[in-house]
Amino acid sequence: MLDKYLYIRSHALQRSIEREIGLDNLKSLLESKESRATFQRNGRIRIENDEIVAIIQIEGDDLVLITAFKNS
Question: What does the pLDDT average to over 11-16?
């Protein structure tokens, strides 16, 4: 487990609420060994499972949730 904090930008929080993705869903996604991570060309990390996708960015020693959406 990484010793990092996850910060949620207001845009990401708003989109998560609109898309009915709870914080417990995001926590499960990020902690699950079943989730898949892909490093994107823009330096962000796409983490997904069969239900949701989270886009994370590393900023210094922290992780920042950019957005989250349902996996189609």
Answer: 92
